[in-house]
Specification:
The chain is mainly alpha-helical. It has two domains: about 200 residues, MFS general substrate transporter like domains (Growth Hormone, Chain: A, Up-down Bundle); about 200 residues, Growth Hormone, Chain: A (Up-down Bundle), CATH 1.20.1250. About 80% of the residues lie in helices and about 0% in strands. The protein is built from 16 helices and no strands. α5 runs antiparallel to α6, α9 runs antiparallel to α16 and α15 packs antiparallel against α16.
Length: about 425
């Protein structure tokens, strides 16, 4: 794998350009959406949080069926249709006026995004050989963060303008970005449906094995603890924008600056942060350290309330630096745990279950963060940091228990 952001020509490069295109639109959307829904549409912050919670709950339910559709009907066609559906959902935000239309549009957006992610992975697996996939995924991750950073900068211009027209322009940009993404995906070679061949190789009743991970209670506990740690995910796109607008005197454009800082730091330092993590012990240490750093970040963010505008900006930047350090450490540790605690012959099943933590965090995070941060203020920040620290420390004994069970029961689970 090279250090270049641009992958080799052919399907890999088309996938990367498609990723870059819609991530630019998403970056602009993420830093402006919370304030658009509250300041332009006129929704209360708590209602925005509730609506997004409902939307991601729907997304979590339909993601798997839409992924199966990609298997049965072809990944390229499904991905193109879902990219178009995402563009339509984003465009519908331009005309929503009220809570129920907002919820309907948000549900469409979350469902299309969840399905598009699954279809894209199926498309990648069909077009790229196994030895090349890790390198391509690294390129796509770099491309994603680069696009988000550029989009966040564009979103910052809209925040600085603060007009309804500027916010609507961001939404139009995001919708167009998904239209372009759909066009790029349509240029890729077709991938034959894989459902029939899988059934032929593995037998007609794979569903029973799919539920096997639920019998591994220690792994389930590790997954639940990781889900608590992932509540940080909606922080940059929802929690901090609402906190800055409602509880501080900092200018709203700082939301974009913090988003760019986060994505740039992940691009530059995530690989370096992960180098020291290579075992269960080092992974749990990384998670534990990240818990302390996240607690410090929450305490610093809380100090921004009541400060003068430029002092608040400095405090928020300091908090964001601590938060991204915690994020990179937690990510590196959780990746190692999720793989090392899974049976060698069922990594995909276990990874699928571990990944539900992301969906749950997206589902519950908006409601939790708006309640804790906007409604409770400083005590809410400290409670969030304390919960993160507690979960990070609980990860150690939970991991040891999961490892002992894996060593004892792995032959049974693999039967």
């Amino acid at each position: 794998m090279t250090n270049s952001l641009i992958p080799p020509s052919g399907p890999q490069r088309v996938l990367a350009v498609a990723q870059l295109t819609n991530s630019v639109g998403d970056g602009a959307y993420y830093v402006t959406s919370a304030l658009y829904f509250t300041h332009v549409v006129g929704l209360a912050p708590a209602r925005v949080g509730l609506g997004l919670t409902l939307a991601w709950a729907v997304g979590s339910l339909v993601g798997v069926p839409l992924g199966r559709l990609a298997d049965r009907r072809g990944a390229r066609g499904t991905a193109v249709l879902l990219a178009l559906a995402t563009a339509l959902a984003v465009a519908s935000f331009l005309v929503v006026r009220g809570f129920l239309p907002f919820v309907a549009a948000a549900c469409g957006y979350a469902a299309a995004q969840s399905g598009l992610a699954a279809a894209r992975q199926a498309l990648l697996a069909g077009l790229v050989s196994a030895p090349e996939r890790t390198g391509l995924l690294a390129h796509l991750q770099s491309t994603l963060n680069a696009g988000l950073a550029v989009g966040a900068g564009l979103g910052g211009l809209a925040l600085h303008a603060g007009t309804r027209t500027a916010y609507l322009g961001v939404l139009a940009l995001d919708a167009v970005s998904f239209l372009v993404c759909a066009g790029l995906l349509a240029r890729l070679p077709g991938v034959a449906p894989a459902r029939a061949s899988r059934v032929g190789r593995r037998g007609p009743r794979p569903g029973r094995r799919d539920l096997g991970v639920l019998r591994d209670r220690p792994y389930v506990i590790v997954t639940l603890l990781n889900t608590v740690l992932l509540l940080r995910m909606p922080l940059l796109s929802l929690g901090l924008p609402l906190w800055i607008a409602e509880r501080t005197d900092a200018p709203t454009w700082v939301v974009s600056a913090l988003f760019v800082l986060n994505t740039g730091a992940v691009m530059a330092f995530q690989v370096r942060m992960a180098r020291g993590v290579g075992s269960l012990a080092s992974a749990t240490r990384a998670v534990r350290r990240s818990g302390w750093v996240m607690l410090a970040a929450c305490a610093v963010f809380a100090l921004s309330a009541g400060a003068s505008p430029w002092v608040a900006v400095g405090v928020l930047v300091a908090g964001a630096v601590l938060q991204v350090i915690a994020e990179m450490g937690q990510s590196a540790g959780s990746w190692q745990l999720s793989f090392d605690l899974a049976p060698a012959d069922r990594v995909g099943e276990y990874q699928g279950f571990f990944g539900t933590g992301v969906t749950v965090a997206r589902t519950l995070g908006p409601l939790v963060l708006t309640s804790l941060l906007v409604e409770w203020g400083t005590p809410g920040w400290l409670l969030l940091g304390g919960a993160t620290l507690a979960a990070s420390y609980a990860m150690g004994p939970a991991t040891r228990r999961a490892h002992r069970r894996a060593e004892r029961e792995r032959p049974v689970l693999a039967s």
